[in-house]
Amino acid sequence: MRLMIQKFRWKFIGMSITALFIVLVITLGTLLGISYTQSHNEVDRVLTTLVNNQGQLTPRNAKPVFGNQKDPINKNFLAGEYNPEAIFQYRYFTVASTKNNTPKIINDDNVYDVARKQIIGTSKQVFKDKVTSGSVNIGSNQYAYRVGKDSKGNQFIVYLNESLIYHRFSLLFRVSILLGLIALIVFALILILVSKKAIGPIITTYHKQREFITNAGHELKTPLAIISANTEMEEMLGNNSEWNKSTKEQVDRLTRLINRLIALARTGETGEVVLNKVNFSEIVKKNVTSFKSVMQKNDLKYNAMIMPDLYVKAERNILSELTNILLDNARKYCDRDGEVRVSLTKGKLGTNAILRVANTYKEGKGKDYSHFFERFYREDESHNSKKSGFGIGLAMAQEIVQTFHGKIHVSHKDDMIVFTVILKLAK
């Protein structure tokens, strides 16, 4: 049970952290998207103003663009009221073409330490390629540029330092990542601290359920023992009828059910199960041999292949019960005149012991096996009602395997249903 509760607790923590992560990604992603779009549009507006005013940017000529925004994202609600002083934050310069096709730098008062040789070379290429807009790296900054024409029809290029404009987005991006990680870590720590209390009612309910099953099982054993004794007395007195035989069979079934319910309630308690190094091969071989007569009685082909001396960490009696459950399940649900196969081998990497118990089940192709390990689950009530079982054997097998830190799964191949148990080999 401790193992199950711990898994549930960590699953709860994991799902909660994942939910918060998704919320943070959506919230911060939206904020960053708006910030990036706003920066992009700001670059476009400043370049437009510079081109319209032949490379000059003043508080007066910038107002039509920054004071009367038509872009819904960048209206005053997000960008704020127009401030004439804001235009002095931009760094830009202008390059004009000359008659001899040699670019000339003009109006470079708003930049610092630009590589003039690189600017001339870049501008020559822009004029030559007849590119109207783009971005270039000059020094340690990135400049957006746009080509315009003055009143005389002469071309000029305005360059705007967009690195400074996008710096706000870059800063917001870094801060968002940092705050998001801090929020996830703090939330995870708080969740770890309070999760025990949060799942407390579940633990209490599970304990009460286990205690009820155990107590009810012991209480039911007494009347069953009396019924069994009375039935045997009737037989001794010569009243050996089919009704007495049916009563004994039902008493046996109820006894097995009670024993398995009690075992199922106890299996999950890892504190009550001491794991030791046990010979898995020896246990499987012994149980396979004990089922030989039962398989023959049911006219079933019975084959086993057991690799010797495979040791795993488990509890001997419970591991034996696991093998019995799978063999008994194969016997019950094998097709008439079908085959039961048992194999115990070493995994490909040599780190696991793999037990496979398969039986012929032609009707199983395409069926949903995802619920086979649920308690009291019966795949087909009308079909399985003819079989003796209560739907708890496979649930018990799964809890046993989980107690041994292993894996169990079911599949269907070549008209056979196969139950596979994987346990780590003991060193």
Automatic annotation (TrEMBL):
It catalyses: ATP + protein L-histidine = ADP + protein N-phospho-L-histidine. It is found in: Membrane. It is an enzyme of class 2 (transferase). The keyword Iron does not apply. Pfam families: HATPase_c, HisKA. GO terms for cellular component: plasma membrane. It comes from the Bacteria. Residues 215-427 form the Histidine kinase domain. Its EC number is 2.7.13.3. One of its GO terms (molecular function) is phosphoprotein phosphatase activity. InterPro entries: BphY/WalK/GraS-like (IPR050351), HATPase_C_sf (IPR036890), HATPase_dom (IPR003594), His_kinase_dom (IPR005467), HisK_dim/P_dom (IPR003661), HisK_dim/P_sf (IPR036097). The chain crosses the membrane at residues 171-194. GO terms for biological process: cellular response to phosphate starvation. Keywords: Kinase, Membrane, Phosphoprotein, Transferase, Transmembrane, Transmembrane helix, Two-component regulatory system. The keyword Transferase applies. PANTHER family: PHOSPHATE REGULON SENSOR PROTEIN PHOR. This is histidine kinase. The lineage of its organism: Bacteria, Bacillati, Bacillota, Bacilli, Lactobacillales.
